[in-house]
Amino acid sequence: MMRLPTRRTVALPGMFLSFGLLVMTAGQLALVHSAAAQTVQNDEKVEPPRPVPGDVMRHWPAYPDDARAAGQEGTVVVQLRVTASGAPEDIVVLNSSSVVSLDVAAVAAVSRWRFEPGKRGGVAQDMTVSLPIRFSLPDEEQQQPNSKQP
């Protein structure tokens, strides 16, 4: 009797980046994986693309001045294709923060990142990933958005 390969769905853990306060270390960033579920063969090992930690730190998005002044925060979920060479392409906002400047800052930053390409069966391949990017302000800026500090 011939046995057909079975397929299973594996949910890969996602990440949150916080841009008001730097709360993520480079070591934690190395653990980043796709938040999307991927279908894999039982005998294939899938390694999702990961941002290169040093590159992310060099291209950390600045908190937009208008959003900071208004005390606005939010999470932007971007979806992108990471090529087999590690370049980000086809970046789109999958879920908006409802603050345009935060969405724009997230896309601009991710477009400058470089990735370790995803691999299937040890071979680098183009893969699509979703990354949630959190913009948050320190507590004192959340409570008094337009106040000037003496």
From TrEMBL:
One Pfam family it belongs to: TonB_C
Topology term for the membrane: Single-pass membrane protein
PROSITE patterns, A to Z: TONB_CTD
Gene Ontology biological process terms from the UniProt entry: protein transport; transmembrane transport
GO cellular component labels: plasma membrane
Keyword annotations of the record: Cell inner membrane, Cell membrane, Membrane, Protein transport, Transmembrane, Transmembrane helix, Transport
Keyword Cell inner membrane among record annotations: yes
Compartment annotation: Cell inner membrane
Domain TonB C-terminal intervals: 48-144
Family: Belongs to the TonB family.
Record protein name field: TonB family protein
Taxonomic source organism: Pseudochelatococcus contaminans
